[in-house]
Amino acid sequence: MAPDETISEQDQFLLRDNYTIDSLADEIRADQLCSALLKQFHRDLLENSRLEPLEAGSLASGADYFLRDFMISHLRSNIFSCRANAIRRFAGHWYIISNLEPNLAELSSLLKGTESFYQFCAAQKLIEDPQVAEIAAACQDLPYYQQRIESFHAITGDGFNAWEKNAR
Q1: Range of 94's domain?
Q2: pLDDT of residue 10
Q3: Are 20 and 81 in contact (CB under 8 A)?
């Protein structure tokens, strides 16, 4: 999909349709635009939310991992189409199998950044409030993710398939 020429080049990251991925070129474009959007998110955390640089960086980094590594690279999905099931799939499965030492402390940080990012998107009118509430609820389901991590560590023999099927 070609960029919208009526929008300045620097604001292309604000257009939902620019994150639709149908080809490798689309994926590369979406990744680059997402990076620009994440910089805007980070700047907003520093300037408008007045967060300390370390906290703002941590939130932006958590959102970056979810958005660029999972939504764009793994799912090849538009970041603005995110729903609770994508959060659960990320936190209750993909994160766990994609990391050497999955743990709730790290995952909580990633989810906090993801939730904060989508709140930022709602404030920018990029997504609707009901979608943000659904995403927030999924990000806050830490007992479920803790159980998934613990049960993953407890897998023996050929128990992976059963563990995988138990994801909600």
Answers
A1: 12-165
A2: 54
A3: no
Look at phi and psi of residue 76 and say left if phi exceeds 0, alpha if psi is from -120 to 50, else beta: left
| Predicted model pTM | 0.89
CA distance 125 to 88: 24
Distance CA 11, CA 93 (A): 34
Q: Taken in order 77, 83, 88, 91, is the CA torsion positive or negative?
A: positive
Report how many domains make up the chain: 1
Q: Which of 84, 76, 82, 89 is nearest to 31 (CA)?
A: 76
In a domain, 7, yes or no: no
For 28-52, how does the pLDDT look when each residue is reduced to its tens digit (9 = 90+)?
Answer: 999 999 999 999 999 999 999 999 9
93-114 b/e (C-beta count within 10 Å ≥ 16 → b): bbbbeeeeebebeebbebbbbb
- Give the integer Cα–Cα distance in Å for 39 and 33: 10
What are the phi and psi torsion angles at 15 (to 5°)? -100, 120
Separation between Cα atoms, residue 128 and residue 121, nearest integer Å: 9
Q: What is the pLDDT of residues 10-34, one digit of tens each?
A: 567 777 788 999 999 999 999 999 9
